[in-house]
Amino acid sequence: MQISGNLPTAFRDADRLSVVDAYIALRPKHAIRKAAKGQSVVQESGYADYSMLLLEGWAALSKTMPEGGAQIIDVMLPGDFALIGAEIAPVAAFTVGALTDISYLAIPLEHVNGPEPEHAALRGVLAAMLVTTQARTSELLLRMGRSSGACRVAYALLELYVRLEQIGMARNGRFHLPMTQHRLGEFAGLSNVHVCRTMRRFERDGLIAHPDDHDIYLPDLDRLSALAEIDLARFREEILLRRPQ
């Protein structure tokens, strides 16, 4: 995927955080909303007629079974954009919950529908971000249906690392992971016990380490990628926005 056309200066790097800057430049008085860790921003089947642009923190989009079991279908990181609802489709398909303290913008459709070139450029980048969201969701669904638990956990760790690396929140295999093993299990479609056993095996095999509380180190990205059945270079191209030429 390549973003083309005459992009404003704010989009020259085509990264997710530049989208935040560009939107705020267009709507400098837009109110910033906040939610505390553990709080639900939107409830599944509730009313929502806006999109969400995450400024700070981590959020989870999740579905819940009638008996209470939950599946995280995506994790939002700083700078991520998600379609929550629209005027003619205002019923939220999932719950949006704060994995950490978060701040975000609730964006009504009309705020990105102006005729100005800046609005058109913003719509183009937001559409591209939705494509990358679909790409990583497709990868996750493939592994949920066709792979082992170890493959799913390896994939989850790599997806988060690659995305955090792009926004400067991960480096040299190291990043902060503010998700409990229970939440990581909801993301990988596994029980807490299964995730715990898998993470311990990864540690014994030298695939992960924990230098600090809630910090994780992936010392061998190539081996972890092989376990996740990912070509890491191609994966980055598919799930990250690419710089304009």
From TrEMBL:
<keyword id="KW-0238">DNA-binding</keyword>
<dbReference type="Pfam" id="PF00027">
    <property type="entry name" value="cNMP_binding"/>
</dbReference>
<dbReference type="InterPro" id="IPR018490">
    <property type="entry name" value="cNMP-bd_dom_sf"/>
</dbReference>
<keyword id="KW-0804">Transcription</keyword>
<dbReference type="InterPro" id="IPR036390">
    <property type="entry name" value="WH_DNA-bd_sf"/>
</dbReference>
<dbReference type="Pfam" id="PF13545">
    <property type="entry name" value="HTH_Crp_2"/>
</dbReference>
<dbReference type="GO" id="GO:0006355">
    <property type="term" value="P:regulation of DNA-templated transcription"/>
</dbReference>
<dbReference type="InterPro" id="IPR014710">
    <property type="entry name" value="RmlC-like_jellyroll"/>
</dbReference>
<protein>
    <submittedName>
        <fullName>cAMP-binding domain of CRP or a regulatory subunit of cAMP-dependent protein kinases</fullName>
    </submittedName>
</protein>
<feature type="domain" description="HTH crp-type">
    <location>
        <begin position="147"/>
        <end position="222"/>
    </location>
</feature>
<dbReference type="InterPro" id="IPR000595">
    <property type="entry name" value="cNMP-bd_dom"/>
</dbReference>
<dbReference type="InterPro" id="IPR036388">
    <property type="entry name" value="WH-like_DNA-bd_sf"/>
</dbReference>
<dbReference type="GO" id="GO:0003677">
    <property type="term" value="F:DNA binding"/>
</dbReference>
<keyword id="KW-0805">Transcription regulation</keyword>
<dbReference type="InterPro" id="IPR012318">
    <property type="entry name" value="HTH_CRP"/>
</dbReference>
